[in-house]
Amino acid sequence: MRKSVFDGVIGVALIAGLALTAGSAAAERLRLMTGPQGGSWYPLGGAIQNIVESNMEGTSVQVLPGAGIANVKAVQVGRADMGFANSVSTVDGVKGNAPFDSPQDNVCNVSTLYPQYFQVVALADSDLQSPADFKGKAAAVQPKGNTGEAITVHMLQAYGLSYEDMSRVNHGSYTDSVAMMKDGNADFFTLGTTVPAGSVMDLASARDIKLVPIDDEGLARMQEINPGYQRIMVKSGSYPGQEGDVPTIGYATHLVAQCSLDEDIVYDVVRSLYANVDDLASIARAMQGITPDVMGADIGVPMHAGAVRFFKEEGAM
Q1: How far apart are CA 31 and CA 60, in angstroms?
Q2: What is the tens place of the pLDDT at every residue in 75-101?
């Protein structure tokens, strides 16, 4: 009798274990790398998490901090399934250009999301009128692995400068950079994000600021380094005290995934994002009214098969 009861307990445990294993196999957990806290990517990742988990039964999303270049590298080697990236650095990754050591051949485009603005911020009473004036100044930039930091290097190079020409270079978060600007420990602050940027607005609440323009000659020299750089204007009034449009560098934020990620999963992710674009626009206003044509635009990065299927159905490819 004891043996019978014992066998019964073992049998129940085995059945429960098999059921749990089957349930785990059916579930899908996606690791989504976003951006540093203080930028727009991290909350946008939270919005995508809510959309996916509400519309794709059995699929969960783990939102992880990251940065544009680092995210591409993480997707390539499988540390992340999906991630936010910037078109200019992803193109470099696909081609194997610096700062990538080799072609990132397992990184595919999923959807373009919105335009990004490279912004160079100085205090209004400074004598900085152009990046050509930055020699001997203190810079506040993001850590290496961030697209904005890589663009900063290219900007300095375009004007015949490098970090060695700066009096000091601090690699930190947006919060760190703003604090340094407020305290007078940095002369200029660079970042790549949307307009208006929360961190820049934070700085503008304490100090009068200005945006340093990148002129056409500077843009042309930067395009020699990376042809993905485009002209974009920070419209007048975007920030307190800004009385005119300011020319700077533009590129696209997009979502990437491992090319090997299941086609049906990627199809469902894109379909869900488009169906709930208003939720995304509440975080990134530039996504308001985005169309499949914009989401599926060719940005020089191979499109994932699941995304191709969705955009073809929408007549966008």
Answers
A1: 9
A2: 999 999 999 999 988 999 999 988 899
